[in-house]
Design goal:
Chain B: This is Carbohydrate ABC transporter permease. The complex is a heterodimer. Helix content of chain A is about 70%, strand content about 0%. Chain A is mainly alpha-helical. In chain A, helix 3 packs antiparallel against helix 10 and helix 7 runs antiparallel to helix 11. By secondary structure, chain B is mainly alpha-helical. Chain B is built from 14 helices and no strands. Classes of the chains: A mainly alpha, B mainly alpha. Chains A and B meet through helix 1, helix 4, helix 5, helix 6 and helix 7 of A and helix 1, helix 4, helix 5, helix 6 and helix 11 of B.
């Protein structure tokens, strides 16, 4: 865009200035501030002079080595995430295979997509309280349903049992997100070159072979994208465990985010400990983002650059030869 | 030969039947919890405790009266949520489009570095900065204000990323140059020539930004402590408190009221929403 006479490049700075300013004030500064708080003795409601600890990493050490709750929250987050992600990706893949199968041609796909995606758009806090009511004991809708269908003979106290409580949180996550994953995967399949499927059909491949030999390998990048965004999302899991059972029973649904919120804002005001936990979480998210960044980088651009460099080198070599 | 073909059709039909059964079952699984919620919002507490029903009863108004007689104020929550979500969506889409425009049209030093940086910070979780953000806002006396929930939306890296892709695909530099020759200023060109081109992308991103803000619990919960500032998701947490302990009908009624606006929006815009998800880059 550079032209003789008028240079417009200053507008590049002017137009991105609001973004940069908002980012510096509302994102970068708070992150750095949080990091600093993690090294201090800041606690309590009343502001008082704070000091960097004598052993700066004391808060981090305490969390990782001595804090049972924090470690439980990490393992809960991982457990709930795995219990939701594996069924989620399997079901999403199955539905994708069905909805994109040219021979089967499922009718009413549009309506199915709308309905399966629906839970994703509803407020997570409402869903958490709703499921808390649905699973109530002894006379909740789910208990009634299970007895009607003959699954159980006496009411089950789902919310007091650690395993069922975790299971329900994982189920809610699964139920809210599989539709989303499915739509992303279907879009991925639509992007595959149709000639590949035609060639497979001509070679006489059946549905299974086409799916496992063509669809799945072509979806690798998109599945990695889903995997990483879902992990980062899972790391931040807050609304559902917070409003479902406040992290209970007996810390069974305490996730890292619920732990951070609890430390800082529910009576104990341990800002330093919460900040240190935030930083540990931040580092984990940063590593995952780095992976995603590496994965999503502009491959064609990188390849072009490489090719260009090769040409330049060759040109130089020729020039030197002369 | 005919027999083989017939066998194939039969197995295809069996497959199809299984697929429809599973899809219908999953659709029911999506609907049923909300159906029970709406039905129970019309039933009295004894009715709810006596078992499951899929047909509405007659206690809707009683439930509503009980609900509203206590601290749950859905109208207040609705308007607070509307103000926060509305303004932060405006900030997010306008300034993201502007930033994307700066990245695409102008050739400035640091442009590439800035874009790389935007991709890097796309995934910073809110929790990572929450403590520092809260302390900072506390020092500014901005807790219980809507500003800290609206202004950060100006820097929305994921939306900038999406808008940049869109501009790269649709904007022709000739159009911008023609506007310049006609003597239009840069900001005028952006507002009057470029923004209209971007409407499809803006609409998609606006829907998702609005819904994400509307559903957000973490930040409002930390910053807003006065009851008349509560957003709908915080209001929902009141339903779990002691005040509605045995008023099950009212709890379901409160939940239904918070879901209703989303249902209306979703079924009006579902086509665009699904298309938007398919475009990717929406996952939170």
């Amino acid at each position: 865009m550079r032209r003789k006479g008028v240079s417009y490049s200053k507008f590049g700075y002017i137009f991105s200035f609001p973004f940069i300013l908002a980012f510096l004030v509302f994102s970068l500064y708070p992150v750095l501030y949080t990091a600093v708080i993690g090294f201090t003795d800041m606690k309590g409601v009343i502001p008082k002079p704070i000091h960097i600890l004598d052993h700066p990493f004391q808060n981090f050490k305490d969390l990782i080595f001595d804090n049972v709750s924090f470690r439980t929250s990490l393992s809960n987050t991982a457990l709930i995430w795995i219990a939701n992600f594996i069924p989620q990706i399997v079901l999403a893949l199955l539905l994708t295979a069905w909805f994109t199968n040219r021979r089967i041609k499922v009718r009413g796909q549009g309506a199915f997509k709308v309905l399966l995606y629906m839970p994703n758009i509803i407020t997570a806090s409402t869903i958490a309280v709703l499921f808390n009511s649905l699973f109530s004991y002894p006379m909740g809708p789910v208990n009634s349903l299970f007895e009607m269908l003959g699954f159980t003979h006496s009411p089950v106290n789902f919310l007091q049992d650690k395993t069922t409580a975790q299971g329900i949180v994982a189920f809610i996550q699964f139920w809210m997100w599989y539709g989303n994953t499915m739509i992303i995967l279907i879009a991925g399949v639509m992007g595959i070159n149709p000639a590949l499927f035609e060639a497979a059909a001509i070679d006489g491949a059946n549905g299974f072979q086409t799916f496992f030999r063509i669809t799945l390998p072509s979806l690798k990048t998109i599945m990695l994208y889903t995997l990483i965004t879902s992990t980062i999302g899972g790391l931040q899991l807050f609304d559902i465990p917070q409003l479902f059972l406040y992290g209970g029973p007996d810390d069974a649904t305490l996730t890292t985010s619920v732990f951070i919120y609890g430390q800082a804002f529910k009576g104990s005001y341990m800002f330093n400990r919460a900040a240190a936990a935030s930083m540990i979480m931040f580092v984990m998210a940063a590593i995952l983002s780095g992976l995603l960044f590496y994965l999503m980088r502009d491959r064609d651009a990188a390849r072009l650059k490489k090719a260009q460099m090769k040409i330049d080198k060759a040109a130089q070599a020729t020039a030197r030869g002369i | 030969m005919a027999k083989i073909q017939k066998d194939a059709t039969v197995s295809l039909n069996i497959n199809k039947t299984i697929i429809y059964i599973v899809c219908i079952a999953l659709s029911l699984l999506s609907i049923l919890p909300f159906w029970i919620m709406f039905v129970n919002a019309t039933r009295s507490t004894p009715e709810i405790q006596s078992g499951l029903s899929l047909l509405p009863s007659t206690h809707m108004m009683t439930n509503l009266d009980v609900l509203l007689s206590k601290s749950f104020d859905p109208l207040k929550g609705f308007f607070n949520s509307l103000i926060i979500s509305g303004f932060s969506t405006l900030c997010a889409v306008y300034f993201s489009s502007l930033t994307a425009y700066a990245l695409v049209v102008y050739n400035w030093r640091g442009r590439q570095a800035f874009f790389t940086f935007i991709m890097l910070v796309m995934m910073i979780p809110a929790q990572a900065s929450a403590i520092g953000f809260y302390k900072f806002m506390y020092q500014l006396h901005w807790t219980n204000s809507f500003l800290p929930l609206i202004l950060p939306a100006i820097a929305a890296p994921a939306i900038v990323f999406f808008m940049r892709q869109y501009l790269l695909a649709t904007l022709s530099i000739e159009m911008v140059e023609a506007s310049r020759i006609d003597g239009a200023g840069e900001i005028y060109t952006f507002n009057r020539i470029v923004m209209p081109i971007m409407i499809p992308a803006i609409a998609t991103q606006a829907i998702f930004a609005f819904v994400a803000n509307w559903n957000n619990l973490f930040m409002p919960l930390i910053l807003l402590t006065e009851k008349d500032k509560y957003t709908l998701p915080i209001m929902v947490s009141l339903l779990k408190g002691d005040i509605y302990k045995t008023e099950f009908g009212s709890i379901y009624m409160g939940l239904s009221l918070t879901v209703l606006p989303l249902f209306v929006i979703y079924f009006l815009l579902s086509r665009y929403i699904i298309a938007g998800v398919a475009l990717g880059g929406v996952k939170e």
